[in-house]
């Protein structure tokens, strides 16, 4: 019976992840060296998508809050920027897409792009379900902190492609908790409140 329940929960989490990713906007970036600009296009707008343009020291040059329908196509003038390496990042509900951009000798080129899938946190009836596609197959560290930043739970998952965890908060004290998922791609957090 436990195996059937575990399989059902995993299938539901996987279905939710695939559905959420299908609803995510697709991003396209075109470098225009003649105009020294970048053209950024989205096929649709997600209410949770944010854009950041960063320099080589991760200083934010441009940031847009949540995108709206006017943000489907934007042109960024880079003519005033110094030569160097920059990053254009779109952060949405389920993924982060980062483009590495080089400005050199009055030319702009997109060197690479990297897409990182974020963990999915689902809260239901005192349980927190975590589903994470671990692209790098590196160690993943799952931690739970209370409102005073005390570590309550720590668990290392080694070399698994799909990390699935269920954390039981049914008997937890009332208050706020922070769950972190740390991987080679970054640290992701989810704040929950137990009432």
Automatic annotation (TrEMBL):
Signal peptide per UniProt: 1-22
High-level lineage: Bacteria, Pseudomonadati, Bacteroidota, Flavobacteriia, Flavobacteriales
Keyword terms of this UniProt record: Signal
Presence of keyword Signal: yes
Protein name: Por secretion system C-terminal sorting domain-containing protein
């Amino acid at each position: 019976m436990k195996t059937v329940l575990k399989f059902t929960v995993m299938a539901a989490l996987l279905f939710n992840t695939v559905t959420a990713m299908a609803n995510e906007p697709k991003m396209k970036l075109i470098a225009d060296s003649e105009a020294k600009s970048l053209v950024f296009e989205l096929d649709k707008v997600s209410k949770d998508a944010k854009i950041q343009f960063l320099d080589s020291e991760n200083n934010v040059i441009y940031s847009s809050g949540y995108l709206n329908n006017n943000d489907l196509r934007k042109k960024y003038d880079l003519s005033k920027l110094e030569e160097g390496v920059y990053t254009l990042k779109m952060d949405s509900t389920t993924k982060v897409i980062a483009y590495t951009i080089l400005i050199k000798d009055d030319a702009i080129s997109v060197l690479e792009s990297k897409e990182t899938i974020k963990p999915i946190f689902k809260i239901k009836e005192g349980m927190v379900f975590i589903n994470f596609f671990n692209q790098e197959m590196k160690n993943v560290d799952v931690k739970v902190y209370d409102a005073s930043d005390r570590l309550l739970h720590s668990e290392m998952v080694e070399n698994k492609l799909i990390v699935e965890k269920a954390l039981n908060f049914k008997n937890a004290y009332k208050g706020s908790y922070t769950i972190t998922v740390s991987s080679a791609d970054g640290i992701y957090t989810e704040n929950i409140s137990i009432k």
